[in-house]
Amino acid sequence: TEAPLLPPRGRALRRTGDGPLHIVYLVPITGPGGGARVLFEHANHLVEVGDQVTVLSHFGPPDWMELRARFVEVPLGWRLAESIPPDCDLVVAGFWDQVLSARRVAVAPVIHFEQGPHHLFEEIDVQQLVAVAHSVRAADATMAVGIGGAEALEERYGVSSRLVPNAVDITRFN
User: Which residue, 73, 75, 87, 141, shows the most beta carbons closer than 10 Å to its own?
Assistant: First the structure.
């Protein structure tokens, strides 16, 4: 018999060992910008609390901020998900188009981290709408950084999400 294309949704978080969680972030871009900054800050905070964090990207590590997580540059032409280590406990997909490939690898549960680009708020062609819907619905869980994004995910794609607002350093911004 053939194996299913995707593992069952809603898999429980598991630990591959007795130590900290190993969380892998799939980061689409690493240049200066809000979306990348949020992903890197989350990774840094997880490192601070003792988790093992690996960031995978097709582009080099950020030279515009400190990243304390392990960084692996994946060659162009390879899917980021193909480089997810087997000891991974949780995958965080930084963009909708990474969810399906991470689910197919079936190493660990996949969280889609939605930051609200154009696929939520702008008109897109039907083919892309179907592709986005299929991908975002495949995640084991979804996080949204804002209420507007969470509402758009629900209205446009029928996906419920948990709100995880961007942290603001009140010592720098007031």
Answer: 141
User: What DSSP state is assigned to residue 17?
Assistant: S
Q: Which residue has the tokens 């406990």?
A: 89
Q: How far out from the chain centre does Cα 121 lie?
A: 19
SS3 32: coil
How far, rounded to the nearest angstrom, does the alpha carbon of residue 82 sit from its chain's CA centroid?
A: 15
Report the residue count for the chain: 174
Determine the Cα–Cα distance for residues 55 and 76; give it in Å rounded to an integer: 15
**Where do we find the tokens 């209205």?**
155
Contacts of 62 (CB under 8 A, 6+ apart): 30, 31, 32, 36, 40
Strands of the 70-73 sheet, one edge to the other: 70-73, 52-57, 22-26, 90-93, 110-114, 141-144, 162-163
